[in-house]
Design a protein that fits this description.
The complex is a heterodimer of chains A (394) and B (258). Chain A has 394 residues and is of the alpha/beta class. Chain A has 16 helices and 14 strands. In chain A, the strands form three sheets. Chain A has a six-stranded mixed sheet with strand order 3-4-14-9-10-13, with helices on both faces. Chain A has a four-stranded antiparallel sheet with strand order 1-2-12-11. The longest helix of chain A has 17 residues. The radius of gyration of chain A is 19 Å and the shape is globular. Chain B has a nine-stranded parallel sheet. In chain B, α7 links the parallel β4 and β5. The model of chain B has no long low-confidence stretch (mean pLDDT 97). The chains are: A alpha/beta (394), B alpha/beta (258). At the A-B interface, β2, α1, α8 and β11 of A face α3, α5 and β6 of B.
Chain lengths: 394, 258
């Protein structure tokens, strides 16, 4: 068994053409992650450019309304570019720059990772090309224009389901045709080793801050931390520093779409099986022939048929729980947060909130829950209006 | 010596690839037999996968057509049985690892053995992950064909020393698909390979014309052609037999003369 495994999950199931590049990436990452200059530069970017540390906000009205555990929102939505994606992107872009790369490519679902990559490319003076399923370019049109404003070229991917997995396929194809000057900024804790580890490390700033913040505010650890999971990058970042704290429940909320008993779902843990795809062994939604299943969710960012290998491991080992949340529940939570706390969050993050709404009331008032508010919801306003049957004209 | 390797004893090999189930498995049976008769030395049968990340547009589309037409593993094995009633041409399955993982490695390679499918290639199982299948494939006498690419460099030695059947030399960066230019270090790659293994090597990715095939077969022990064949089937659908026979015999002649 090679390295880059989380139990049986992970690995490097990728074409020979990319293997040397993956080794090179791993070696460079291992060097720079311990390099004081690199870390200082990244810290400065986090602080001065991305706006970190992000707030840990006590949602008082929501807490009172639900009448149970004290609810805290980790406000990744307040980061520059409006989501947690910037944490990983600044890390990888800086690494790519140190490696002498001049061009960044990325896949994107909702567009948040694409926007973050286009942003970093602009900041570092690098070329940028983003692959996005054609279906997603339509439901997240604003983010497409945002990427173009930032100087990136957006490729609408017309193969397969025209969503996130197809965007990953095409980004991998592009990378295998041009590795010399190009770094593939993978956006989630997935893909071949070393990506799941690199992305998790850069995202772990979320739980590093949140753990300190909650100890300061509450004087003790939370009873649970909750995050939405597609590939699983904000959840991995939110969980990571709490993994050794055995009393803290780690809860990942998957997109159930129209329900896990329907084919229109993206809940991998609930409906998927063990498989090998996109460079990793993990759980995937697939049919009885081992073909990757078309998945569905209202959220373009969670609309992915797999889950990162470390999540698969946390699930198998029983350390983390994964629960399905439907479109309806997520939309309801999206509206609830807007009206209760005056915060319009990403529809992805609303999946996590929806589950918190279910459990908070039955928990005790001296317990607390941290929800990762992974992104802001401006990008979703038009889609939610459509979902509710409202005709919008901008 | 394995049956795959033996095929190279007779001279330079022409190795066509066809996507199984496009437009139907009945046609796959017919086209494989046609290509064998027209001079194909070894035939690669591509098992379609929903998300073929190493393929260009032509094979991606053929894979999706085959899946939409209702391709199943069971159907494929039945089709290969029919091929075997009429031909002993060496066959190789090429596919992504998930459908095989899902079918069960043991059951899959046992089936390969019973159908005399003597080789297996998977673009998403590099050297590092080879033990995923190597032991089981060996148990059933199936060669796991390794790939080397223009970026393999110092990896060539390890891959070569472990090679069986033949080594699949990827002609250029990127995905499958017809192209006009190839990596400039192909000769060097083959020279490297020959230093470390007796196993023959064939070049694939992007080859479509007899001139290109001859050029590649002059460097290596054979030439592999995928997208150009799959495109003939895409164009002519149920009526591709004659065009395939013409094409394969032209290509075989070009390779033979190299």
């Amino acid at each position: 068994m090679n390295k880059g495994r989380f139990g049986q999950f992970g690995g490097q199931y990728i074409s020979e053409t990319l293997m040397n590049e993956l080794y090179h990436l791993e070696e460079q990452y291992e060097y720079y992650k311990n390099d004081p200059d690199f870390n200082e530069e990244l810290d400065r970017l986090f602080r001065e450019y991305a706006g970190r540390p992000s707030l840990l906000y006590y949602a008082k009205k929501m807490t009172e309304d639900l009448g149970g555990a004290r609810i805290y929102l980790k406000r990744e939505d307040l980061n520059h570019t409006g989501a947690h994606k910037i944490n990983n992107v600044l890390g990888q872009a800086l690494l790519a720059k140190k490696m002498g790369k001049t061009r960044l490519i990325a896949e994107t679902g909702a567009g948040q990772h694409g926007v973050a990559t286009a942003t970093a490319a602009a900041l570092f003076g690098m070329e940028c090309e983003v692959f996005m399923g054609k279906h997603d370019t339509e439901r997240q049109a604003l983010n497409v224009y945002r990427m173009e404003l930032l100087g990136a070229r957006v490729h609408a991917v017309t193969t397969g389901t025209q969503t996130l997995k197809d965007a990953v396929n095409d980004a991998m194809r592009e990378w295998s045709s041009r590795v010399e000057d190009t770094h593939y900024v993978l956006g989630s804790v997935m893909g071949p080793h070393p990506f799941p580890t690199i992305v998790r490390d850069f995202q772990s700033v979320i739980s590093r801050e949140a753990r300190e913040q909650i100890l300061k505010l509450e004087g003790k650890l939370p009873a649970a931390v909750v995050a939405c999971v597609g590939g699983g990058s904000n959840a991995m970042g939110m969980f990571y520093n709490f993994i050794p704290d055995e009393g803290v429940r780690l809860i990942g909320c998957e997109a159930a779409g129209r329900g896990i008993d329907t084919p229109e779902t993206a809940a991998t843990i609930a409906t998927g099986k063990l498989g090998i795809f996109h460079g990793m062994k993990s759980y995937f939604c697939q049919d009885e022939q081992g073909q990757i299943a078309p998945v569905y969710s209202i959220s373009a960012g969670l609309d992915y048929p797999g889950i990162g290998p470390e999540h698969a491991y946390l699930y198998d080992s029983g350390r983390a729980e994964y629960v399905p949340v439907t479109d309806d529940e997520a939309v309801e939570a999206f509206e609830y947060l807007a009206k209760t706390e005056g915060i319009i969050c990403a529809i992805e993050s609303a999946h996590a909130l929806a589950y918190v709404k279910k459990i908070a009331g039955s928990m005790s008032r001296d317990q607390s829950i941290i929800v990762c508010l992974s992104g802001r919801g401006d990008k979703d306003v038009a889609a939610i209006a459509r979902y509710k049957g409202v005709d919008l004209h901008e | 010596m394995s049956k795959i390797q033996t095929a190279f004893e007779k001279g330079k090999c022409f190795i066509p690839f066809i996507t199984a189930g496009d437009p139907s498995l009945d046609k796959t049976v017919e086209y494989v037999l046609t290509m064998a008769q027209a001079g194909a030395d070894i035939i690669e049968i591509g098992i379609p996968f929903s998300d073929p990340t190493a393929e260009g547009a032509v094979i991606q589309e053929a894979s999706l057509r085959a899946l939409q037409a209702g391709f199943t593993m069971e159907g494929l094995f039945e089709a290969v049985e029919r091929i075997r009633e009429k031909s002993k041409v060496p066959l190789i399955f090429m596919t992504y690892i998930n459908p095989v993982f899902h079918y069960g490695y043991d059951a899959f390679f046992e089936k390969c053995q019973s159908l005399s499918v003597d080789g297996f290639i998977s673009p998403d199982v590099p050297f590092e992950e080879k033990e995923e299948i190597a032991g089981i494939a060996q148990k059933y006498g199936v060669d796991v064909i390794s790939m080397v690419s223009p970026t393999s460099r110092e990896r060539i030695r390890r891959i070569a020393e472990d090679a069986e059947g033949f080594v699949y030399v990827v002609s250029s960066m990127g995905v499958t698909g017809v192209r006009s230019e190839f990596s400039s270090n192909l000769k060097e790659t083959v020279t490297q390979l020959k230093k470390y293994t007796e196993v023959p090597c064939a070049i694939g990715f992007g080859i479509s014309t007899p001139e290109q095939a001859a050029q590649m077969a002059a460097i290596a022990d054979g030439a592999i052609v995928g997208s150009a064949i799959v495109r003939i089937v895409a164009d002519k659908k149920e009526q591709a037999g004659e065009a395939l026979a013409d094409y394969v015999s032209k290509m075989k002649n070009a390779v033979r003369g190299a």
